[in-house]
Amino acid sequence: MDLKQEGVAEVARVEDARLDDPTRSDMEYDKTLSAEMINQDHMELYLEAIQRYPNDEAIDMEEEKRLKRKLDIRLIPLLGICYFFYYVDKTTLSYAAIFGIKKDLNLQGTDYSWLSSIFYFGWLAWAIPSNLIMQRLPPAYYLAGNIFMWGALLMCEAASKNFATLAALRVLSGAFEAIADPAFMLVVSTYYTREEQPWRIAGYYLWNGIGVAGGGLIGYGIGHVKGALESWRYEFIIVGAVCAAWGIVLALLLPNSPTNFWGFSHDEKLMMIARIRKNQTGIENRRINWDQIKEAYLDYKTWIYFLLGVVSNIPNGGISNFSTLVIQGLGFDTLHTTLLGIPQGVIVVIWIVLGAVCNQYLPKNSRTLVAAIFMLPTIAGGLGFLLAPKDAYVGRLICFYLTGSYQASFVVSLSIITSNTAGQSKKMIVSGMIWFGVCVGNIASPFFYKSNQAPTYRLGIGSLLVANCIELLIFVLLRYVYIWENRGKEREREVLRERGEMDAFTQNATAFRDMTDKQNPNFVYVY
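Structure tokens predicted for Major facilitator superfamily (MFS) profile domain-containing protein (527 residues):
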């Protein structure tokens, strides 16, 4: 019996009990029905939340605004700082390249490209298992432990004497970083409504740009270090130590669940839970549901998300690891190359904020349109970089900066995926699969940047262009996919109404039942 049949059966059972015992009040029967429909950890608190706030209108708007501000202050900076370290950690190799790591470790041929890519082999192997482990464990502690290990392994990389040692450490680093983005997406979907998620994802993702700029500042500072070790080794040690320390701080500050979020009153926790009802995606369930895992892999949308992850990160893999070499190839010395990473990061922040603003103020269901529109500057920048004269250094640098607009599109795409996937185990797999695609794109990307094509890297910039065009088409495809799926949902609800079975599927009955987006007739896709 699937969840839809179970829902109808539960309503029928409770209605029969009502007839058998007419002395019990309607409120007592509603409580029984609600309890049967909740499939979440800490069921009692969820039940109290929907009894206190039986519908969205029962939530006071001013109190909700205060709660959202408090959540923003407590959550988004934590995720943002994580993302700062997340990006700086991944770009340390890029800055090490201009500070002599190739010469010091005698890297030959495609060795540097392999070091860029091999990081993602560890990520690739551990992405799905790590997501399922996170479902079973307190997610904040699991994320914090992984971040601590990022830093520890980065410090170990400073001791590398050859390609093999550094490659092995980067594989392990990739495995520990595999949980980061899925964990961030889980936090946002747990505490924010679908309408609020794009801004919050943008709020932490823009620290990606701050990481680009911060990497430039760190690189510039380390470039002046004159010590017993090579300067690139100091970069690994310093960044790794601070990152590991942040992992400890995160374990103390990030909540594992709305039910144990310290600093919030009992009433605030009830509102925190009740207002997420409209998402119809559930919040927390630490039992792995293998039927949901099967559905995730059989859902064609999962594979569209996977492809989106691939094509959106073919540009990213090259830019992350070769941006300094591309800029240096325009005629700038080492220290000025690191400084020119700062405006690159600032521009990324501006792109992400612009994407969030457009999504906020355009009509409802404009996310796919916003994502598609912000692919256009990236495509224009790539074309300009390829076609501009070789001596047009400033023009080509501006074109290279324009390529960062795809970051805004990717942020919006994350909110699309987070908002359109329900069922806890299915969410774990789907979020894992997009980042699985991210790995594939990042593994392939560095090999498009041939050393014999430096400094123009025509094949690398060409791969960026092709990937961007495919990504734009995927956003158009997703828009029509969601419209088509919603029409099917409406037909499904009409059939249930004709059968008189819609009583089994009220908003309260389905919100916390851990139903997937496919199973839940109340689920409406946003696009």
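Residues 3-57+493-511 form one domain.
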